[in-house]
Amino acid sequence: MSDNSVSSLQTQSAASLPNQSAASGDQRVKFLVNSELLSDVTFSVGQNGTLIYGHRFPLAAASEVFYEMFTAGKREPPSSVNGEPIAVPDIEPDTFLEMLKFVYYDNPTIREDNLVELYYAGKKYNLSGLRSRCQQFVCQEEASVIKVFTANVKHGFEELNQACLKTICANPLVIFRSSDFLELPLELVEKIAVQRKLRCNDDQLLDALKRWAQHQDGVVDRHEALSRLKALVEKQQELNRDYQCRKWLFFGPICYTVDACKGTFHVTALKHLDLHGVGIYVGCHENEMPVSMSILVMSGDKMIRRWQANVPIREDIYVYDCMFERISLRTNSKVTIICDGPRKTDGPLKKFTFWNRGFTWTGDNSVLKLEDDRNYEHTAIAYILYRTKDSRDSF
To answer: Which SUPFAM superfamilies does this UniProt record tie to the protein (predicted)?
Structure first.
């Protein structure tokens, strides 16, 4: 074995291989990864030239780049495939080995710290399946998305950026409260700020951008950066935000009342779905003031989400979207959504509400089952925002 080989890569010699006759196909192929047994090509990988052994047939079958390299020498000098190792200085040995695991038996280990380099290897050798696997990891591993998003600055792969932004848009309030978000460079925060499909309202987005700016002392000019970000958000406000959620809509007799606008709704999921927020009708007569509003989501006696903010009450009637962190419900899961409005106001504020009498909900009856609690006479809840597990984002 060459002195340049790294022991941690577990190079297999023919003598060290056990009898694999009883093993599964995947297990038999697994022993060929970085094995000298029947190896007919060698790679000098990374800056230190670590030797990794390969086999032309599986490599050529998986990648047209390897096929052309081995059959016509179009991608590498002829000497690289005639006795001399093929130099791969731009990929680290551990990453190259994971790529071989994908080629040989379709089981690479993808982590947040190697994903971007694996994606690079998939690009270089035209392994579309490996690139897709990396994108799937980003979509499934929410906790890793910011680290991957940041690591991709080096290469700027647009498909990987889009996968990261899709994951961020799907549950942004979780991302915003992470410490990784505060470490993002301005160019990536700008990419997030212009996304129309963020499942948060503009107030929540601006609050997150302010927290990010406050953390940038000595990194960038905080005031200038925040001004740029606010300008981007204001430009996006000209367009309607697209949460890509379905709505359970509430209809009933309307009125203006000085009573507290409350509402309690028991929700049973008839299939797997995610809850993302509720719409609150706001509007009043001859007043313009904020009203403190709380949204609580309960599972039995346990509070699983709480959202609280000042909701702007204006003379015109509109719906204010109260978004919260994604709540995933399994079939037959039950939650209670409580809209807790102000008990008192400083003046005779007459708020726009629905009578909690003769109401009706409209929506897909195969998805949700809702039953109201009529302890409160009025409610300002306009709809519930949800997504079924089979929904697909357009991006």
So the answer is: POZ domain
31-62 tens-digit pLDDT: 889 999 889 999 999 999 999 999 999 999 99
Q: Which CATH class is domain 246-388?
A: mainly beta
pTM above 0.90, yes or no: no
What tokens does 180 get?
A: 């990784």
Q: Mean pLDDT over all residues of the chain?
A: 81
Tens digits of residue pLDDT in 249-296 = 876 666 665 554 566 778 888 889 999 998 887 766 555 556 666 777
DSSP per-residue letters across 135-147? HHHHHH-GGGHHH
CA-only gyration radius of the chain, Å? 28
**Are the C-beta atoms of 200 and 172 separated by less than 8 Å?**
yes
Task: Report how far apart, in Å, the C-alpha atoms of 367 and of each of 269, 297, 370, 386, 395 are.
Answer: 6, 18, 10, 10, 24
Architecture of the CATH domain 30-137 = 2-Layer Sandwich (3.30)
142-238 adopts what CATH topology? Answer: 1.25.40
Domain ranges of the chain: 30-137, 142-238, 246-388
Three-class secondary structure of residue 340 per DSSP: strand
